[in-house]
Amino acid sequence: MKKYYITTPIYYANAAPHIGHAYTTVAADVLARFKRGRGVPTFLLTGTDEHGQKIEEAAKAAGKHAIDFCDLTSGKFRELFKHLDVTNDDFIRTTEKRHEDRAQELFARLLKSGDIYKGRYEGLYDVVNEAYVKASDAVVAKDGKTLLSPDSGKPLQTLAEDTYFFKLSAYGPRLLKHYQDNPGFLAPPHRAQEILRFVEGGLEDISVSRAKVKWGVPVPGDADHTIYVWFDALINYWSAAAGRDDLWPADVHIVGKEIFRFHSVIWPAMLMAAGLPLPKKVFAHGWWTVDGRKMSKSLGNFVDPYEITHEFGVDAFRYFLLREMPFGNDGDFSKASLTKRYNAELANDLGNLVSRVTEMVDKFIVGKLPAKPALEGDFHTAVVAKRSAEIAEKMEALDFHGALDVIWEVIRGLNSRVNEKAPWKLAKTDMKACELVLFDLVWSLRIVSGWLEPFMPRKSAEMQMQLGVRRVPDALTAEDVLSGVSEHPGEIHKGPILFPRKIG
After folding, report:
1. Is residue 144 predicted with pLDDT exceeding 80?
2. Cα–Cα dist 146/129, whole Å
3. Start-end of H helices in 146-287
């Protein structure tokens, strides 16, 4: 059976991971957890990109051999993703033999078909991004002479060398037809126009090898050349599927907007040339700024996920990443905005609600719940349960922000219902009515905890333990909760505060 195959980019292993890497990977994990929770066999891939000139230079600066440097840096990505509770099924490194073999296999296929040919490049080169730059794209510096990279802003070098080219120019019409026939391929829609305009403007053949970079996959049959790091890196998604009939093609590549063009133009053209199925969707998310400024080494404002999770917890960090801005848009990270959202939504709206409900059940009916009445009349759980389809639709579209909007609408509604029904008053006048109101609130919160599982797996499990769903620290999804709606009323266990308020 074909698995739902989700990929993140493979992250360049020349430096330690930061919030940008965490963002993409947590988003992919949330989607994977959601899919698995609905019974969909799912496979999540992440990894590290470990070839190229910048790796050579970083390793040299650190006084290490390139592979030893990559071992160290790649390990930091693994450690971070484990720390963030990412449930990846595989972690691929481009220095692994399984990948190098597949990269050479695909390169050889395109050599044989004539889609890759040897030629000579003479022009501008961006050392920072390890990419050739067209003269028409170069930016003229303030001195009126120096040409700068449009991407890195650094001075461009003039380069002349033999190289292998990929016939990207031949695939423009096929790409445009694919976009037209598969409108969901380019996502989100507001980023699709950029790609369409680029392809409609005409494509040029691109260099796919380097003669002066030794740290890379050798070009098959030509030991003087290594495969260009970007061409090599894109193949990782296919490499991880080697020998598996249940994976390829990928269902969704989740990438940052800065590499959208590589994944939505070059990569599908490579697959077309090789006669391989194309991924079903490429989704480009936005960038994070920090306190209104772009992240950069010179500003020293890269956000360390470990520092944030040490103070706010892993689940609050995961929640904030997907709550602060619609997935696909740009957003700004600040500790002030995280603190505000943590206190208002997690501590007040959700944490306080769970505490109030469990405390009332504990106080008024000694933690016991009555048998479940019919889901009708004023029983609010039936209304809550109907929102599952709406949330699922948004999750399928990778609208994580929209899904959380709906969940928080329900949570705020439950807070209002507590005040409206006032179980503490009913406990004095009508205990049966009090029990039914509390049962209603508990079951509604159990469903909410299931919705929250992909975003906050640890806190979801804690909620469910307090709400009598189960006594082991393993969260159930909303579907699990709903499927057992007629079973075991359970026993409530008042627990510690889910989200202690933060000061500052």
Report:
1. yes
2. 18
3. 172-181, 189-200, 229-234, 236-239, 260-261, 267-274
Residues forming beta bridges with residue 158, ordered by sequence position: 124
**CATH numbers and ranges of domains, the chain:** 4-286 (3.40.50.620), 333-483 (1.10.730.10)
- The three-state (H, E, C) secondary structure of 20-89, written as one string: HHHHHHHHHHHHHHHHHHCCCCEEEEEEEECCCHHHHHHHHHCCCCHHHHHHHHHHHHHHHHHHCCCCCC
CA angle 487, 488, 493 (to 5 degrees): 140
Least confident interval from 35-49, 158-172, 236-250, 286-300: 286-300
**How many angstroms separate the CA atoms of 388 and 386, rounded?**
5
What is the rounded distance in angstroms from the CA atom of residue 193 to the CA atom of residue 187? 10
DSSP secondary structure, 298-327, as one string: TTT----HHHHHHHH-HHHHHHHHHHSS-B
Using CA atoms, how far residue 192 sits from 31, 179, 365, in Å, is 21, 9, 56
CB proximity list for 273: less than 8 A, separation 6 or greater: 109, 110, 113, 115, 166, 167, 171
pLDDT band at 485 (very low <50, low <70, confident <90, very high): very low
| Three-class secondary structure assignment of 145-183 | CCEECCCCCCECEEEEEEEEEECHHHHHHHHHHHHHHCC
3-state SS assignment for residue 489: coil
What does DSSP assign to residue 98?
H
How many residues make up the chain in this entry? 504
The token pair that represents 41 in the structure block: 């066999």
Q: Residue holding tokens 């991924």? A: 279
Question: Which residues, including other chains, have CB under 8 Å from residue 349's CB and lie 6 or more apart?
Answer: 408, 411, 412, 415
Question: Around 116, how many Cα atoms within 13 Å sit in the side-chain half-sphere?
Answer: 25
Residue listed under structure tokens 């499990």: 461
Q: Hey, what amino acid is at 476?
A: L
Three-state DSSP state, 90: strand
CB atoms within 10 A of CB 25: 24
Report which DSSP code applies to 5.
Answer: E
Instruction: Decide if pLDDT at 372 tops 80.
Output: no
Return the C-alpha torsion angle 175, 178, 183, 185, nearest 10. -70
CA 159/CA 135 separation, integer angstroms = 12
* Distance between CA atoms of residues 283 and 455, nearest Å: 19
Nearest to 479 by CA among 394, 388, 398, 414: 388
pLDDT, position 487: 47
Contacts of 112 (CB under 8 A, 6+ apart): none
Residue with tokens 């980019």: 9
Find out whether 317 and 305 touch, Cβ atoms under 8 Å: yes
